[in-house]
Every structure is written in structure tokens, then in C-alpha cells.
Amino acid sequence: MISCYKTRVRLFGPVLLLIMMVINGCESVAEHPIVDAYKFEKPAHFPEPTYTFRNNQVNEKGFKLGRRLFNDPSLSRDGSISCSSCHVQSHAFADIMLHPFSFGVEDREGKRNAPPLFNLAFQKEFFWDGGVTHLDFAPILAFESEIEMDLSFEEVVARISRSADYPALFKDAFGIEEVTGPYVLHALSQFMLMMLSADSKYDRYVQGDHQALNSLELKGLELFRQHCESCHQEPLFTDLSYRNNGVQRNITDLGRETVTEVPQDRAKFKVPSLRNIEVTSPYMHNARFETLQQVLDHYTEGVAEQVSIDPKVFASGKPVISLNAEEKEQIIAFLKTLTDPGFLTNPIFFNSND
Ligand code: HEC
Ligand code: HEC
Questions:
Q1: Which of 117, 228, 270, 338 to probe ligand 2 with, by most ligand atoms within 8 A of CB?
Q2: Is the CB of 139 under 6 A from ligand 1?
Q3: Under 8 Å CB-to-CB from 162, ≥6 apart: which residues?
């Protein structure tokens, strides 16, 4: 169970390498016209994206093709599961509450909670342990994982090539005569890259609208900056590092160590963004908590001594973060200002065969 990453690499390493070579070698859609609603625009207060748009410029046709692939259950072994089965827009593309661990084909239960998907263009590494180093590769693992869609990527591409309508759509979007793996991945990335979440009440506040937060929320922001900011750094609400915040009572998932093979990385997981946190319960890689109150109680009372525990949450034999009931309420009020209703209901992400 804990060696899942190594298994992935063994199985998919050669495929990844091949795809990487092809991706790096192609300048795909530069000559196609760009329609504004489907153009990637960096939010003014965000850092520069890490995704290499040079090789894959987002455009309407590629985006819509990606949307179709994202919602297509025929790309799973038994035709039952699509990406959108586990990544649901109204939950910021996290899984629905009923599924603490996502269910794949034949209701096989996964081992980790599906993370939300947004602001992916700004991440360097993907998955809870950072085992995937390019957004374009993330779908391969989802397709091939036996607890997700359980279909080899080769077969995914073959099914797409044999379908009645996909080849024409790929030709239209990328000008290619034959559907190939890298273009399938480019289309999916185009769809996911447009999942930008940067228009919450908090964003309006930091961009100069001082009425956007009320006094309770402002107190929460102040406390947040004091106790949480060092890991959940603004404006992405993650510093993209790997840390152990003590959520595993007994360490069964080695987290980052499965990737780096360094014992100091035991039980460390990627610091998740807290944007849209109001709609992404349950929380943590192991879905241990259902409410934000439980999360805060964990930080103030639940954290215990453990190998690799982060000194920002546990030091000198006790939890570092100390908050009374009122302060917890203020932080929770602030966290709810990170909800971005425009993103959660944006119709461009709705399943549609347009
Ligand atoms: C059965 C549920 C399930 C399905 C189906 C699924 N995912 Fe996921 N997805 C997950 C889980 C669970 C993780 C976290 C895995 C981990 O950290 O080990 C994840 C992680 C990701 C990530 C990384 C996010 C991050 O912030 O690191 C991306 C991107 C992603 N999935 C895209 C997709 C795409 C595209 C598809 C369809 C091809 C898909 N997923 C299908 C459950 C699913
Ligand atoms: C030492 C760095 C660190 C500090 C300080 C910290 N966190 Fe976290 N936080 C993490 C990590 C790492 C995770 C993911 C842990 C896991 O799943 O194994 C996390 C997870 C969370 C989650 C769950 C997110 C999700 O998508 O499941 C919430 C909510 C959260 N933190 C809120 C806070 C708040 C509020 C504070 C301040 C009171 C805080 N954190 C302080 C590192 C930190």
C-alpha cells in the first residue's frame, strides 16, 4: 500500500518518458485563434504560473475537448467512472462528502481523499505526495490506477481514436490527423488550467475593497496570518512544501517519503490550499475531519509528538498553536471568505458536448 508511487513508476515510467519527449518536442496550437473567454489570464495578485503554456496554449476548442474527456466514463475499464465522478465542480472539483476516499471502477475504494482542482497552473508538483511533476502527467495515473479508472493509457488513446466523433474534434483543435497521447493530455490540461479560483471575498479585500470583509472576518485574517500563514501562504494559501501536521495517529501512509525515499520525509504531505475549503469536506489526505472546527481542535489539542512532526505545530512537548473558542470562530469565519462562488458555478465547466 505504501509503495504505490514506486509501483506507478515501474509501470508507467517508460510511458511517461515517451510522452515527455513528445510533449517537449511539439509546439501545438500556436496558430489557432484565441477566444477571450477561454484564454488563460493570470490573476493580477498571483505569482507567475509554472505551467509551460508555450507548448500548450489554452483555446476554446482544446478546452471544450478537454471538458468532454474529463466527463467521459467510456475512458474507464468498465465504462462507469469519469474524472468528474471524483472531481465535482460544486465541491471545487474535490470529491463529494459521501466519499472520504474516492471510489473507482467496481466501487474499489482509494487510499487518499481526492484533492480539489484549481489554480493548478501555479503548482510545481501534483498529488498529496508530489509524485507527479507535470500537470500533463496527472491524468495518466488516474486512467491507469486500478483504484480509479483502471485502463491503460494506450487503451484510452485507442478508444478515443476508434470513437465516432473524437478524431474530428482533435483535428479541429490541434490540426492532427491521428489522435495521440500527448494531445489527449494537452486537452485535459487546457480544461484543468482554466480552473482558476481568485475571486473570493478575500481576493476583493486584498485588491482594495475594504468593505469586502466584516470585523469578525478581519480578526480571523489577523489570527490566520499569525498562526497558519507560515505554511498556508497567501495568495495560493500554500507554500507548496511538504509537512507533517500530525493527522495520522499511526503512520500507515509514508507520504512524501514514497517519492524521495528520504526517511526525514516520512508522513509529510503537500500543504493544501485553503481556498474553497468551505465546500471540500472531508479534510486532510486521509479524510480524518469533517468540519473546520475539528481541524482547529486538532491543531490546538490533537497534535502529538511524532517522527517528522513540523516544529510549527508541535514543539517543547506541546502543540504550538493556541486559540480559544472565540478565536477559532474568527478563523473559521475568515476561511469561509475564501469561497469563490463564481468558480463553483461557472457554466464553462458544466458537462456539455458543445
Ligand atoms: C476514483 C476517483 C478519481 C478519479 C476517477 C480521478 N481522480 Fe484525480 N485524484 C483522485 C485522488 C484520490 C487524488 C489524490 C491522489 C494522491 O495524492 O495519491 C487525485 C489527484 C488528482 C490531481 C492532482 C491534484 C493536486 O492538487 O495535486 C489531478 C490534476 C487529477 N487528480 C486529475 C484527474 C483527472 C484529469 C482525472 C480523469 C482522467 C481524474 N483525476 C480522475 C481521485 C480521482
Ligand atoms: C506546519 C505547517 C502548517 C501550519 C502552521 C498549518 N497547517 Fe494546515 N495543513 C498543513 C498540512 C501539511 C496539511 C495537509 C496534511 C495532510 O493531509 O496530511 C494541512 C491541512 C489543513 C486543512 C485541510 C485542507 C484539505 O484540503 O484537506 C485545513 C482546513 C488547514 N490545514 C487549516 C489550517 C489552519 C486554519 C491553520 C492555522 C490555525 C493551519 N492549517 C496551520 C500544514 C500546516
A1: 228
A2: yes
A3: none
